[in-house]
Design goal:
358 residues; alpha/beta; 8-stranded parallel barrel; 15 helices; 11 strands; 46% helix
Length: 358
């Protein structure tokens, strides 16, 4: 299995930029038309479909249900929150999904943020880097299946150290279909990006600016240089999200994306700890970020939305007429990104395939 996966990764790293569809979070109910859209994007040459979870629907169940009707698409979580499941439960789900899909499952993991981890899951958010490293290490041990599972901790001691003392070290009963099942990590902070480059097969950046790759390169290279690094820059996947708004009316196109940017920058985190806002600060938009945060957190959401500058949107999104987006795609093609992850209605997904695959 190791050789098969190694060959697959080598092929995928040397081809042109791929497209992936991010189904996104569910709202109050299940999104409509997903099976039909999956059939369409598979025929259009999309490589991967992604599911997400926050504090509503989970990421794995929809992928299993909808993915059963696909034959070629990679099925990836973007992301499974590590506080939602023990590492052993996540490994069991990943092994199961990989068997069910015939080796098409990719496990995307992330720590989420303190508001969700502590406010929804009721767990501590401290030491997210250490927890991520230990979590992934346990999953790798389970996939390797070389010996019965034990882990000294301190985050996930196995067997438990404070129970009845009757815990027994076990080996996963179901043999993994692929020992090298791909693990991707969602990361934004510099240390977390370096960790992803060290221990994972790929990285999910939620906000990626293709014209400013030097901002990420230092941290990625730090991870690749560590003795324990699994991969190099040449065979590491970068699966970058890009919100898309296609409209000949430029003002309307930008206005479609402003609410999302304002929500992440202003409302997805506390003022003293917002990883999304920090990304834009590192891109040089400190003044705009401070204004958006201040307005959003003081209850003036509409003003916060209006305060999102066009330049800030252009950094990480694809916005405007098809002709403009086609020109803007050049920067993504020339970047280190291997998969461009987009969302939107079927007509948007079809247009993106036409613009990228031509």
């Amino acid at each position: 299995h190791r050789n098969v996966v190694a060959n697959y990764c080598e092929i995928s790293m040397t081809t042109d930029l791929k497209l992936g569809w991010h189904i996104g979070y569910w709202g109050r109910s299940m999104p409509a038309g997903v099976p039909e859209t999956l059939k369409m994007i598979e025929s259009l040459g999309y490589e991967t479909v992604f599911t997400a979870e926050s504090w509503g629907s989970d990421a794995i169940s929809p992928l299993a249900w909808w993915g059963a009707a696909t034959t070629k698409l990679r099925l990836a979580t973007n992301i499974v929150q590590i506080s939602a499941r023990t590492p052993t439960a996540t490994a069991m789900a990943a092994i199961t999904m990989d068997h069910l899909s015939g080796g098409r499952f990719c496990l995307g993991l992330g720590v989420s943020g303190p508001q969700v981890v502590e406010g929804w899951y009721g767990q501590r958010f401290n030491k997210p880097l250490a927890r991520t490293r230990e979590y992934v290490d346990i999953i790798r041990k389970i996939l390797d299946r070389e010996e019965r599972l034990t882990n000294a901790g301190p985050e996930y001691p196995i067997p438990a150290t404070d129970g009845l003392g009757l815990g027994k070290a076990l080996n996963v009963m179901t043999h993994p279909l692929r020992v090298d099942l791909q693990i991707f990590i969602g990361a934004e902070g510099p240390k977390n990006v370096a960790l992803a480059a060290e221990i994972a097969d790929g990285w999910y950046p939620i906000f990626y600016a293709p014209r400013h790759e030097e901002m990420y390169a230092k941290h990625l290279n730090e991870g690749f240089a560590r003795p324990t690094a699994r991969r190099t820059a040449d065979n590491f996947e970068i699966l970058a999200m890009a919100n898309v708004a296609i409209d000949e009316d430029m003002d309307k196109a930008y206005d479609k994306l402003r609410p999302t940017i304002a929500l992440y920058v202003g409302g997805m985190g506390a003022q003293e700890m917002n990883f999304h806002a920090d990304v834009f600060r590192r891109l040089g938009y400190e003044e705009a970020v401070d204004k958006i945060q201040s307005l959003f957190l003081s209850g003036h959401q509409n003003d916060a939305i209006a305060a999102v500058p066009k330049a800030m949107i252009d950094e990480i999104c694809l916005v405007g007429s098809p002709a403009k987006i086609k020109d803007d795609l050049a920067a993504w093609r020339e970047s280190k990104v291997t998969t461009l992850v987009v969302g939107g209605a079927p007509e948007t997904l079809r247009t993106m395939a036409e613009l990228l695959y031509g």
